[in-house]
Structures are given as structure tokens and as C-alpha cells.
Write a structure and sequence with these properties.
The protein is an alpha/beta fold and 1337 residues long. It is globular, with a radius of gyration of 39 Å.
Length: 1337
């Protein structure tokens, strides 16, 4: 037997008994933070304690603190190191400290060194040196320690070393961390005479100053400190002067509730005092979601219907986070001009060292400009603040604003579920807060299960009765009191306004009061607040309902035997003008005596100088009526959406889709059914349309209101109308609601045209159109008498060159000069003119517009497209007269199909794009199998399932947030998405539908499939750029970069596979790696045919030919670049038109000729030649992705795309090219230079032998050697790497070379992998070149 050897047993850590024990053991981060905190606090303390104004300090210099004290014109420098530990330290601890001190001392013997510490010290050598009491034994020990340091660092300048002198330059001081914060505040009070109430603000500002200096390793002076203290004093003094001071209040969690939860359990909104007292129920899961969102996003929105505990949830989150964020509530934000004051207020708080959480509770009209506030905060402040918003569904719909401008926002939607109901029941039971009559959670749940409102459930559990029952009892008691009538009147108005989303001012409420309470009105309101009836907002002067759910019960109870009409009229009279459209949009939710109510409403809104109130009322009522119609038929509209026909159905159900005056109607679905009689989906949508009830305008409130308003307008004399603009707008609305209500019978066109210069063209056109529809005979008589002056007016006000009539064709023509800056808007310019022309003169069959602009005589014989030339029949123009109505109709309906946030919308589209990449990959796999002579097997089912999933996720409306909102500006971001959806996503869908026929080699299906695939590829870059613009603002850059590379590769590979499949038959020897070589040859042959078409011109012109094929949609074009070609020369153009005749034989649809100057720029100066090489664009994207990845995930590396200087012997470098590296990674003296290459082929082939691209190797070797030269005599390690994007080629480079002392490696990065696998490849590169490097999570 052999000799056995004993192995030394390794110490095995005992397993942890539980998760708490494991947590306790992992305290490294906590210990590090304690040490950092100690260093931070001492730095502040030391700077404050310095009395000499000439002293200055560098934080994180050679040591933790470098203290420079000026004495007699020279500087005494002390380097201070700080150490904190909870563990006792012995002499071994000091070795590294002495080493650091020695390295600096040997360079400059005039420097001093100090160790400031807070830890227990073991008796012995360490305690003696700390006390400056070295005996012989300790002296020998420390001399030996320094001797070992000398042994390990022989290159240091030890000739100047003397033990005693060095020790005399050392000092040690113990300061306990626990007293530093207090000492800082004491020092501030003593030196700067600061009031103790504000001292924490000053202390925080000093801490922030020190923190910023530590980040920058910058100097801090006494003067800077004094300046910071003074600025804080100024900010504090400005506080009350800023008007925002009265709109913002700090949430106070210091005082518990004094009523033991009575108000909370009565259904009143939660307050900070309720939270402190622990009355509101805790909802751990939802609270965690809110807190995580606050930590991760700039804005968190809690959105739900009334009664779901939004305010309680927000206040709980603010309470939990109060040690990290100071919570403030913003009470008022409805004027853009005041937003700057609000930002200034919060900016001052942040400068004082606060991190703030801004609560906006119960979003409404008085907080409607919150979106603008966030945008300004984003531009002014970059950190230390978050926003938390609560909102009802309808209020979010009305006031959310354009969310594309907000960098990070998340919406959380709390809802009471059965599981949570059980938890709440058990919590109340444990707290002994259940009412004695409540013995079963199930029975309580059943009572509120229909609406599932938290407020009603909590009330039932704590009171034993429903909230509605309690309110009924409470109102009954009020009615029997002496002031009961006055209280009930107030409650009716305040609670009704609350349900309509508006607030009433105390002044207006007092003025409207008819019942005398016999007591002071203010005291009456306070009494009602104490009885949990209303909320008095003393700061804003508004009276509000306690909660919309309570308000609903109050309104129902108080109007049980009284009509709600009078209350609504009263509220209408006292509501703010800006609230009218919102108020009227809610009226369709109530049952009113229509005729009487709206007649009174018309009279209530009358103001002869300003009729615009009526416009707000009509639009609000119309929107509300449409919403009620939609909600009544939502299931069928959802069905239409599921079949991809929501917009079609919505448009055809609009009552304004018919124009009886002109015999025109919108019947798109019927025409589609005629065109595609076998399409089952179109047939289904047609049948669905027949099932949806029509919107009967006669039964809506907007109809009755317009009837009453029409009768009012008929009593007016036209020459007495002071607000003619609003009058015209209102008149058109009324006529569209019912054509019999035409106000034109009340005025003559002579009156209208008496002073046309005082009216807008839109106003005159509208009233002319109404006159035409109302009395065509009188209209025609007037026009015949005044046609010349009308045409002159139209010419002048449309800014046109000429307006004339073609009697033979019964047509009217308008010609105008198209300015250069409007050259791309010719179509819009022409259509807008024709619309106004037709509205004023709807008597012609044809309306024509032409723009006057420069022409090229040489091309006169050719049909050049002109989008400014329009010839439109009257039928096509009158459809646009109802554009505002149909738009408002469709917006109201389509707004129900929006994403809540831009992040959700982006996630959806990125998921769709990734799904397409997977589809393309699976399609290639199918082709590989068939070409190998194998059957598809289960792969066919996989592809079909993916195709069906793709169709499912892309069917229906997926609207951008706020893309369609009544009364609001249209969001600009989604404008281009429509074309992209048709060009890219729809083309992919079409290709997938034809793919089975393509594989079966059906000629028609193959042709159509390739047309769609080529169209998708040609629009790919446009689609990617579109999402790139949005992604950069919402943190999607990394995902966007990876996805772009995947898409480009997968679509290109799919096209190659399809082309190859069309040209080849199955073969058992098939190798998928031969496809690219074949396809490259196929494209090369096509380009060669085209190039041969220019033989006659090549001898005279220097022509650059493309190295790839370009497409726009299904058309293939051939771009060439001609040096110094004068396109303005007719002789040159003639020569080229003749010389390109041979090009017609090439397999391209058209030729593109570009002229370049001597700087290799297209003559417009905007497009470089290389922009036409798509491979170069992808290469830049590839480089950018790698660079940004290392920047984000490896903060300990210095990451750049830096230039490398040439190592020149004589310093003369004229005409040498710049050495620009792609990716330069460095840690100390270790450098890795990566040259990122994105090529179609990673190797070059000569005589059937694969070799690396020699130019690339020469380039990276040159970079490495010149970079190494920069280090001089310092130890260094400089390596280089060629990192190719992996292709489908069989042979891929994977080599490491040692060249003249440097490592040069050649690797590939497989981008056709999930992102985590791509990241793993990049991480392995970093780990291989930088020892111990850590990746940031």
C-alpha cells in the first residue's frame, strides 16, 4: 500500500438555523456604511471646528482628509485617516495605516499624519503608540513592522527615513461616532448663532456640501462654509415670501388622533394623525408595491375608484418612508405661471439637505397642472425628490396630461379582493374593533361584494351597518335640529359638486345660501366638519365633500323626495368657469327633469359679452353622453376591438357620419364587404354593427340643452351680438345636433358681410354654410349679387394668389404661393384652403388647389408627383365639416383603450418586436429542415402557435397614454406609429399568414410573402429609430440596442433563407452555412448587371457603386454617388438620361443619383457617404452597445472611447490619422482596448483558406503598442481584442496571440441570444482581463 497523507481539514461553517441568523451573519454592507458614515460626520465636524479662515481641506485626497493649514506664508499639511469598528483592534491593525503614511512621508518629510478612530483598543503595542508612550519593547516592535514594510517596498526612497522623526509626525485621536452629530449642531449654534429650531437644516446643508466635495475629491474652504450657511439663512427668510408657502404643507406624523379613530371610521378621509394612531387597516402587499415604486420611479400614481383607500395607502407609504423622505402635500397647482414658485420652494428644501416626497392627493382641476410641475422639476432638479399621486379613474382621464414628458411613472391600481377582505376581518378581530353584530367575514363581504369598496367594508365591520344606512340616520338627526335646513342645503350643494369633480368656494356657497341657520355661517361650517359632514379647507377657501362615496349616499338621501335639478343649477352658478366642461360632463350620470332643467341652465349661463360658457357646456354634455352610450354597450365595443375593428365600428356608430344635405354617408364597412366578400372577419363586424343600438341623440341631455339654447339664440338681434365668434361656434354645434335648429333664419347675409374684416374667415365660413343649409334660395341670391367681393375676400384671407371659377366644370380654383419652409406641407396647405372655400361656397361640384413653386423645364415632359395639387369633389370635402364632432366622438370611445403609462406601452411594443425575432428564427429552422429533406414534425405546430399568438397580441387598439382625449391636445409621440404598424408589423403579419403556402412552393404565395418580407425589412430602420427616440427617455436604451441587433440579423437571415429556398431543392447534403455565401453571390450578380449599365458614363465620371441592395417598401432602388456632379445643369441631366438607358435591363425598380463634393459629403451637407452603408450603421450601434454596457455595469473601470496619441520620436505628427479606439477599459495600469467589428463575414477567404482580416489585426496591434508607450517606465498590462459580432458562418475566430509582450485576442459576441447570455459573454471578458473586478447589479 502507498503512504497515506493527511489532509488539513478546512474549517466548515455551520449551517444557519433560520433566515434571521443568516441575515445577521451578512453584515458586511452595514459595517462598511458605518465606517463611511463615521468618515462623513468627522469631515463635517473638523471643517466646522476650524477657526482659521486660511485653512482648507481636501476630502478623499491622499488620505480620507487632507488638512492644509497656512502658517507664516507656508502650508502645514496633515493627512488624516479615519477608522471605525465595533471590534477590538490590536497592533496588527496599524500595519496598513503606517504603510500609507510612510509612502507619503518618504516623498515629503514636512507632512504630518493623524489617525482618528472609534473602536476598542487592545492593551499592548497599539495602546502604547496611541498614547505616545513607547517603551523599548514596543519601540522594537514598531521598528520591525516598518522594516517589513521596507522589505516589501524596496523602490521607495528609504534614504530619508528616520524612525524617531517619522514617529514624531504621527498623532492619534479617539472621537466617538455617537457624539459627532450633536457636536456638529453645537458648533453651528456656537459659531453662527443659529436658532436651535433650524439647526438641523444647517447641519444637513453642510453634510450635503461635504458629500459633494467627497464625490469630486475637491477642496473645502472656510469661505465656502460661511457662504453655504448664509444661503440657508436667506432661503429660510424667503420661505414665507414665496406664495407657494401657502399651497404646500408638511405632513405631520408627530401627533396621534385625538378622537380615537371616530372620524376615520365614519368614512372621512384618512389623516396623518390617523396613520400615527394605527387606525387605518394595513395592506402589506399594496404598501410594498407603492414603496417599491416610489424608490424606483420619479412619479407613482395610485389610481382607483372612490372608496378603495387611495389616500390611506398614500399616507401609509409616506409614513413608512419618513426616515428617508420628508413628506409634503401640494394643495394647489392649477396655474402654469405659479409652477416656478412651487419648484423654487422644493428646491430650497433640497438645498437644505432634505429628500422630499410630494403628495398630490385626489387629483382634480385645482391640481390640474401637476404634469407641467413634474416637467419643470425634471429640468431643474435631478435627485432627492419623488411624487406620489392619488386619483380617481375619471380624474386621471381628465388631468393626467401628456405622460410622454415624464421620465419614469408607474400606476398602481388597488382593489379589494376576497382574500384581502378576510385579512382585514381578522386584523379588526385581533384589534377588537369589530362591531358585536359582525360575526362572519363572509356575510359582511356578501353585502358589499357588488361594488367591493373598501370604505363601505370597513364601515360595515366597525359599525355593524352599511354606510348608506348610517348616513340616512345621520341626516334624519340633522333634519330635526334647529339649523337642520341650512345644513342640508349646504350638504346638497357640496356633495353634488364633489360627485361632479368640482369644489365650491366658501364665499360663493355663502352667497347662494337661502336658508338662515340663525348662527354665523363660519361657525355652522365648523360644526358640520366636526360632525363628519364636510371638509373645510381653510387654506384654499373651498368646501369639499369628505369622500365621493359618502357624497353619493348623501346626495341620494337628500334628494330622495326632492329633485336634484335645483341643486345642480345652484352648483352651476357658483362653479368656477374653468370647471364648467367637467361639471357638465358628469350631468348625464344623474336623472334630471330635462326640459325644465336645461332651460334654467341656459338662463344661468347667459353672459352677452361672453358666450363661450355655452361651448364648454355643449362639449361637456356631448362627451358625457357619448361616454354613457359607450358604457351601456361596452361589451360589444370590446368585441369589435377583439376583432380589430373598434375604430371602424366607433366611426360608423357616430350619428354624425351622415350628411343629408349632400347625400353623403360613411359606409366603410359595407364597401370593405363588397371588396372582400369572403372575409369572415369583415362579415362579423358588419353583423356586430347591426346589433349595437344606435345613439339616439334625441334622448340625450346634449340634445335638450341645444334645443333650449337654440330658442334663446333665436330671440337675439344679430347686430346686437357682442361675442360673434362664440355665437358662430355654438350655432354650428346646435345645427349638427339637429339640422332644424338653424340660426341663419335670424340674420341676413348683408348684415354678416357689412364688416367682414372684423371677423375671422372661420367665423364667416361657418355662418355662410349655415345660411346655405337654412335657406338655399336666399343664399344663392346673395352670392350671385356679391360673388366678386366674396372671392376677393377669400383670396385675401386665405393668403392666395388667385381664386377663380371654371363654369364649364362647375369648379372653383385657388392658387397660392407655397413658401420654401412649407414645401413639405403642400397637401395640408391645399386641403385647409379648400375646406374653408367649400364651407363658404358649398355650391360647386369640384374644388381645386394648386401651389406655385419652381419647376425644372427639362422634367416638364415627365409626370412629377405634386401633393399640393388637389382636386376634391364636394362629397369628399363636406365629410370634413363634421370632423370635430366625429373626432370628439371617437376620442371619447378610444380613450377607454389606452395604456396607463408610457412604460407599459413601450413594454408591449418591445414584447411584440421580440416575438417577431422568435418567429423569424423558427421560420429559418423550418426552411433548414425542409432543405435537408426532413419533415417539419412538431416544428410546424410551434410556428403555427407563434403565428396565432402574434395575431392575438397585435389585434385590437393599444393606445398610447392620452393619445385620444376630448378637450386636450393630441399626444405627439404616436403620430408616426400608424405608418410603422402598416409597413413593418402588418407586413410581418401578412408574411406569416402566407408562410405555409411559401413552404409549399405555391408561386402566388411565395411572391406575396417575399413582397411583405422585403417591405418589413425596408421599414425596419425607421421603426427602430422611432422607438429609439422614446426609449432613451424611459430607460429602455439597453433593451433597444440588443433588440435592434437581433431584429436586423434575424430579418436578414430570414430573407436569405427564403431566397435560397426558392432557388434550391431539398438535399441530404445541405449545409445551412452555405446560404450566406450563395446569397452574397446572388446579390453581387444583380449589382453587377446594374453596374454594367453605366459603362458609357464611367469613362467621364467618377461613380461610386453600392455594395448592397436597397429597398423602399417593395421597390428596389440602386443608389450611386457621382463626384462633383452638377444637377442644375440641363446638359448633364440630358447626358445622364441617355446614358442610363442600359440600366433598364437591371433587376431594380429605379435609380437614385447623388452628387458628392470633395469632402465626401452629399451636396446638401447633411448625409455622409458612409450613411448609405447599412453595415456601418449597425457597426456604430454595436460599438455603442458594448461601450454603454461596460459603463453601466462596471463603475470601477474607466470606460471611454478615447483617442490614443502616436508615440513619436521627434514629436512631428503632421498628416498622421487619429487613433480612435472603440472601447477603452482601464483599472489602474491594466488596460484592455476593444475594437468592435460588425461584418457580414468575420473572416476573409483566399484560395479556400479562412484568415483574419489583416487590416484589423494591424490596427489593434498599433493601438496597443502606442498605448503601452504612454506608461513609460511604470509597470503596465495593455491588451487588445478584436470583438466580432457572431455570424452564421461555420468558421468563427476564437484565438489568443502573444505579440511583442502584449496579448491580442480575437473573439466573437453572439448577439442572437437572450440578453442575460449576451451579458454573460461580456462579463467573462471583463473578468479575464481585470482581476477581482466586480459587476454592479
Amino acid at each position: 500500500m502507498g503512504k497515506s497523507t493527511k489532509k488539513k481539514n478546512k474549517k466548515v461553517t455551520a449551517p444557519k438555523a433560520n433566515i434571521q441568523e443568516l441575515s445577521i451573519s451578512r453584515d458586511g454592507g452595514q459595517i462598511a456604511l458605518r465606517g463611511y458614515s463615521y468618515q462623513f460626520l468627522y469631515s463635517c465636524y473638523l471643517i466646522l471646528s476650524s477657526s482659521n479662515p486660511s485653512n482648507f481641506f481636501q476630502l478623499e485626497g491622499i488620505e480620507d482628509i487632507d488638512c492644509i493649514m497656512q502658517k507664516n506664508g507656508s502650508n502645514d499639511i496633515t493627512h488624516i485617516q479615519l477608522k471605525y469598528s465595533v471590534n477590538k483592534q490590536d497592533a496588527s491593525f496599524l500595519t496598513d495605516v503606517l504603510k500609507n503614511f510612510l509612502e507619503a512621508y518618504l516623498l515629503d518629510q514636512n507632512r504630518f499624519f493623524k489617525l482618528v478612530y472609534d473602536f476598542p483598543v487592545a492593551k499592548g503595542h497599539l495602546s502604547k503608540i496611541f498614547a505616545s508612550k513607547l517603551d523599548e519593547k514596543s519601540r522594537t516592535y514598531w521598528a520591525g513592522v516598518i522594516s517589513n514594510i521596507k522589505k516589501n517596498n524596496p523602490s521607495w526612497n528609504w534614504s530619508v527615513y528616520d524612525f524617531d522623526k517619522f514617529i514624531s509626525h504621527l498623532s492619534f485621536e479617539k472621537i466617538e461616532k455617537s457624539i459627532l452629530a450633536t457636536e456638529i449642531e453645537k458648533t453651528l449654534i456656537r459659531i453662527y448663532e443659529i436658532n436651535t429650531d433650524n439647526v438641523s437644516l444647517f447641519a444637513n446643508s453642510i453634510k450635503i456640501l461635504c458629500f459633494e466635495k467627497m464625490e469630486q475629491r475637491a477642496y473645502v474652504t472656510k469661505a465656502e462654509l460661511d457662504s453655504k450657511i448664509q444661503s440657508v439663512k436667506i432661503d429660510i427668510s424667503k420661505g414665507p415670501q414665496n406664495p407657494a408657502h401657502s399651497w404646500i404643507r408638511k405632513l405631520d406624523y408627530s401627533k396621534p388622533s385625538i378622537d380615537e379613530g371616530c372620524s376615520f371610521y365614519e368614512g372621512k378621509k384618512a389623516t396623518p394623525a390617523d396613520i400615527v394612531s394605527g387606525f387605518p387597516i394595513k395592506r402589506p402587499s399594496l404598501e410594498k408595491d407603492v414603496i417599491n415604486s416610489i424608490c424606483e420611479n420619479m412619479v407613482t400614481v395610485i389610481k382607483a375608484s372612490s372608496g378603495q383607500g387611495k389616500t390611506t395607502l398614500a399616507l401609509r407609504a409616506a409614513y413608512i418612508l419618513q426616515n428617508e423622505y420628508i413628506p409634503y402635500q401640494l394643495l394647489w397647482c392649477d396655474e402654469i405661471k405659479e409652477i416656478g414658485n412651487i419648484v423654487q420652494y422644493f428646491k430650497a428644501r433640497i438645498q437644505l439637505g432634505e429628500k422630499i416626497l410630494i403628495l398630490i392627493d385626489n387629483l382634480d382641476d385645482h391640481l390640474s397642472k401637476w404634469n407641467y410641475l413634474v416637467q419643470l422639476l425634471q429640468s431643474e432638479l435631478h435627485c432627492h425628490y419623488k411624487l406620489l399621486i392619488t386619483s380617481r379613474e375619471m380624474d386621471w382621464y381628465n388631468y393626467s396630461g401628456d405622460l410622454s414628458n415624464i421620465q419614469s411613472l408607474k400606476v398602481i391600481k388597488p382593489a379589494l379582493e376576497e382574500k384581502e377582505a378576510i385579512e382585514i376581518f381578522n386584523l379588526f378581530g385581533e384589534a377588537k374593533q369589530l362591531h358585536p353584530s359582525i360575526t362572519s367575514w363572509q356575510r359582511a363581504w356578501n353585502k358589499i361584494a357588488e361594488r367591493q369598496l373598501l370604505i363601505e367594508y370597513v364601515y360595515l365591520l366597525t359599525h355593524g351597518e352599511m354606510l348608506s344606512e348610517r348616513i340616512a340616520s345621520q341626516i334624519s338627526e340633522i333634519g330635526q335640529s334647529s339649523s337642520g335646513k341650512a345644513k342640508c342645503e349646504i350638504l346638497r350643494k357640496v356633495c353634488f359638486a364633489d360627485l361632479c369633480g368640482v369644489r365650491l368656494s366658501a364665499v360663493n356657497l355663502y352667497a347662494s345660501q337661502s336658508e338662515d341657520s340663525g348662527s354665523d355661517f363660519g361657525e355652522l361650517l365648523k360644526c358640520m366638519e366636526s360632525e363628519f359632514l364636510v371638509h373645510v379647507n381653510e387654506e384654499s377657501g373651498y368646501i369639499e365633500g369628505l369622500h365621493p362615496i359618502r357624497s353619493k349616499h348623501v346626495v341620494e338621501r337628500l334628494h330622495e323626495f326632492l329633485p336634484i335639478d335645483n341643486t345642480a343649477i345652484s352648483v352651476m352658478k357658483m362653479a368656477d368657469k374653468a370647471d364648467l366642461s367637467i361639471l357638465f360632463s358628469h350631468l348625464p350620470e344623474f336623472t334630471l327633469n330635462k326640459e325644465t332643467f336645461f332651460r334654467d341652465a341656459v338662463e344661468s349661463l347667459w353672459d352677452e359679452k361672453d358666450l363661450s360658457n355655452y361651448t364648454s357646456a355643449i362639449q361637456g354634455l356631448f362627451s358625457g353622453s357619448v361616454m354613457q352610450y359607450f358604457l351601456s354597450n361596452r361589451a360589444m365595443f370590446d368585441d369589435a376591438d377583439a376583432h380589430g375593428g373598434l375604430f371602424l365600428i366607433s366611426t360608423e356608430m357616430c350619428p354624425f357620419a351622415v350628411f343629408e344635405d349632400f347625400g353623403v354617408s360613411m359606409d366603410t364597412l359595407d364597401k370593405m364587404r363588397e371588396t372582400f366578400p369572403d372575409n369572415k372577419n369583415i362579415e362579423y363586424l358588419c353583423r356586430l354593427r347591426e346589433r349595437i343600438p344606435t345613439c339616439r341623440l334625441q334622448e340625450t341631455y346634449v340634445y335638450v340643452f341645444c334645443d333650449c339654447l337654440y330658442r334663446k339664440l333665436c330671440t337675439l338681434r344679430f347686430d346686437g351680438i357682442k361675442d360673434i365668434m362664440s355665437y358662430a361656434s355654438i350655432s354650428e354645434w346646435i345645427y349638427n345636433i339637429n339640422p332644424e335648429w338653424n340660426v341663419s333664419v335670424g340674420f341676413s347675409l348683408d348684415d354678416l358681410w357689412s364688416k367682414p374684416e372684423k371677423l375671422t374667415l372661420e367665423c364667416i365660413s361657418t355662418l355662410m354654410y349655415l345660411s346655405y343649409c337654412g335657406n338655399r334660395k336666399k343664399y344663392m341670391e346673395f352670392v350671385e349679387r356679391n360673388l366678386k367681393s366674396i372671392l376677393t375676400y377669400l383670396k385675401q384671407w386665405t393668403r392666395s394668389h388667385r381664386v377663380f371659377i371654371d363654369s364649364e366644370k362647375n369648379a372653383i380654383h385657388i392658387e397660392y404661393i407655397l413658401r420654401l419652409h412649407n414645401i413639405k406641407t403642400g397637401n395640408e396647405q391645399s386641403v385647409s384652403r379648400l375646406k374653408l372655400l367649400c364651407k363658404a361656397l358649398p355650391i360647386f361640384d369640384l374644388y381645386c388647389a394648386d401651389a406655385l413653386k419652381p419647376t425644372v423645364d427639362l422634367l416638364a415632359a415627365y409626370p412629377v408627383p405634386d401633393d399640393a395639387h388637389k382636386e376634391m369633389s364636394i362629397r369628399n370635402i363636406v365629410i370634413m365639416f363634421h370632423q370635430n364632432l366625429t373626432s370628439l366622438w371617437n376620442k371619447t370611445i378610444m380613450s377607454n383603450y389606452e395604456f396607463d403609462t408610457v412604460t407599459e406601452w413601450l413594454n408591449y411594443w418591445f414584447d411584440v418586436r421580440e416575438h417577431i425575432c422568435l418567429l423569424a428564427d423558427k421560420c429559418c429552422a423550418c426552411i433548414y429542415k425542409l432543405l435537408s429533406g426532413k419533415t417539419l414534425g412538431g416544428l410546424a405546430g410551434e410556428v403555427d402557435k407563434l403565428r396565432e399568438d402574434f395575431a392575438l397580441i397585435t389585434t385590437g387598439e393599444k393606445r398610447y397614454p392620452k393619445e385620444d382625449r376630448p378637450f386636450e391636445e393630441k399626444a405627439t409621440v404616436p403620430e408616426r406609429l400608424g405608418k410603422i404598424k402598416n409597413k413593418y408589423f402588418q407586413s410581418i403579419q401578412n408574411f406569416m399568414n402566407q408562410f405555409a403556402g411559401f413552404l409549399a412552393k405555391e408561386e402566388q404565395k411565395q411572391r406575396l410573402a417575399m413582397v411583405n418580407l422585403i417591405t418589413a425589412q425596408s421599414s425596419l430602420v425607421t421603426m427602430q429609430n422611432y422607438f429609439a427616440e422614446i426609449a432613451i427617455d424611459f430607460g429602455f436604451q439597453e433593451r433597444q440596442m440588443v433588440l435592434c441587433v437581433m431584429e436586423t440579423q434575424n430579418i436578414e437571415r430570414l430573407i436569405m433563407c427564403c431566397r435560397y429556398y426558392q432557388a434550391h431543392s431539398p438535399n441530404k447534403y445541405f449545409d445551412k452555412y452555405q446560404i450566406r455565401n450563395w446569397y452574397d453571390g446572388y446579390c453581387r450578380d444583380e449589382r453587377k448587371i446594374a453596374e454594367e449599365g453605366f459603362l458609357a458614363l464611367k469613362s467621364k465620371y467618377l461613380i461610386h457603386f453600392p455594395d448592397k441592395i436597397y429597398t423602399i417598401d417593395m421597390l428596389r432602388y440602386y443608389p450611386i454617388i457621382v463626384d462633383n456632379f452638377d444637377m442644375a445643369s440641363e446638359s448633364n441631366l440630358t447626358e445622364w438620361l441617355l446614358g442610363c438607358i442600359a440600366f433598364s435591363d437591371a433587376p431594380f425598380d429605379y435609380l437614385v443619383i447623388l452628387s458628392a463634393n470633395e469632402f465626401e459629403e452629399i451636396n446638401s451637407g447633411t448625409t455622409k457617404l458612409m450613411d448609405f452603408l447599412d453595415e456601418q450603421r449597425m457597426c456604430r450601434l454595436y460599438e455603442k452597445f458594448i461601450l454603454e454596457y461596460y459603463k453601466k455595469h462596471y463603475p470601477k473601470l474607466t470606460v471611454s472611447a478615447s483617442q490614443i496619441p502616436w508615440s513619436l520620436d521627434d514629436g512631428i505628427g503632421d498628416m498622421l490619422p487619429v487613433m480612435q479606439s472603440d472601447i477603452h477599459l482601464q483599472k489602474e495600469n491594466t488596460v484592455l482596448i476593444i475594437d468592435a467589428k460588425y461584418y457580414s463575414n468575420t473572416t476573409q477567404v483566399q484560395f479556400d483558406k479562412h484568415t483574419l482580416h489583416s487590416n484589423n489585426l494591424y490596427q489593434i496591434f498599433t493601438y496597443v503598442k502606442n498605448r503601452e508607450y504612454q506608461f513609460g517606465d511604470e509597470d503596465n498590462k495593455v491588451s487588445g481584442m478584436l470583438l466580432y459580432a457572431r455570424t452564421d458562418a461555420l468558421i468563427q475566430p476564437d484565438n489568443v496571440y502573444q505579440m511583442h509582450g502584449n496579448q491580442i485576442s480575437v473573439k466573437t459576441l453572439d448577439l442572437n441570444k437572450p440578453f442575460d447570455e449576451i451579458a454573460k459573454q461580456l462579463d467573462e471578458i471583463a473578468a479575464a482581463h481585470f482581476d477581482g473586478i466586480e459587476k454592479a447589479v
